From TrEMBL:
Record's keyword terms, sorted: Signal
Signal sequence coordinates: 1-16
Keyword Signal: yes
Protein name (database record): DUF3530 domain-containing protein
Species whose genome carries this gene: Candidatus Thioglobus autotrophicus
Signal as UniProt keyword: yes
Lineage: superkingdom: Bacteria
InterPro entries, per the entry: AB_hydrolase_fold, DUF3530
Amino acid sequence: MKLLVSLLLMSGLVNAQTTPDYAKETRWAEQVEDGLMDGDVVWLKANNHEFMSIYTPSETDTQKTAIIVHGLGVHPDWQQVIQPLRVALTTQGFNTLSIQMPVLDNEAHSGAYRSVFDQADQRIQAAVDYLQKNDLVADVLVAHSLGSVMSTHYLANYPHPFKRFVGVGMPSDNVDYLPKLSIPVLDLYGDQDIESVLTSVKSRAQAAKGNNDYTQIMVGADHFFNDKDDVLIDSVGAWLK
């Protein structure tokens, strides 16, 4: 009996730790809606929870859409990497749908986010479903940093319609999932990137050795492409062409 009670208590603790910080997501949503310059807020639902996304139509008539996934603890209009890509890709033949991923409290390290990967999967799937219901095509999945790990986790474990994947600043955890990806992959990183990205360059390439359409490119930038938006946009755009 004591063992059963202990297990139940531990289970409750795990469940508590795997609940995203919805209050933080709400604060992000309010800030984004107040300052949104391009695109429209679209509310999606996964795991019985509504979450924010931003849909921005292409400048050309197309069904092709890029779903964009941000990194650790931020939001779908984050000024570094995410906002530049979600807007710029609309000038390159894509609609974009940038989605809010689960966030934890400010003290949570990247490893703690593994506990919400299943919920992240469901949010990406909800975005795919939204596009399909609106006669749009989920053509490419674009992700940054921790968002790239969430994205490769999804791509490795679920049937999906994506034809291409772009990972920007992919940390070492991607090594667990890259072997299962068969679609074309762009692994883009900076020569001044964070340690987890730079020390796993070879291991990521080794993990993806079975994928003939895996491309690894290093450019002159840091992890967040500070003052290098043009490099980011041009590199991703050139590969997508």
